[in-house]
Design goal:
The chain is α+β, with helices and mostly antiparallel strands and 99 residues long. The protein has 1 helix and 4 strands; from the N terminus they run αββββ. 32% of the residues lie in helices and 24% in strands. It is rod-shaped, with a radius of gyration of 30 Å.
Amino acid sequence: MIDTPEPPLPEPANLKFLRLLVTTLTATMIVGLLIIITLIVIRYRDQSAPLPDTITLPDGTTATAFTQGPTWYAVVTAGNQILIFDRATGRLRQTIDVD
């Protein structure tokens, strides 16, 4: 008597769906990881002028907040003013009174 191999059984539909779902999620994770790495590389390649070691404020002002842009940085003072400085030279560009 010779044993003949049985033909393979068809794959169940829910197993096909699960395999497709896992493959799609894996591809999505890979694409997302590549996007995150690209954004980190772009962010660290930003060549804006460095900030100065110290910021000299006008007499009698106290800093309460700080923010920056590509060509400027700003200091919010306790006297409700925003002092905008040039990033390259450190020179005071503009003073904005906040009411």
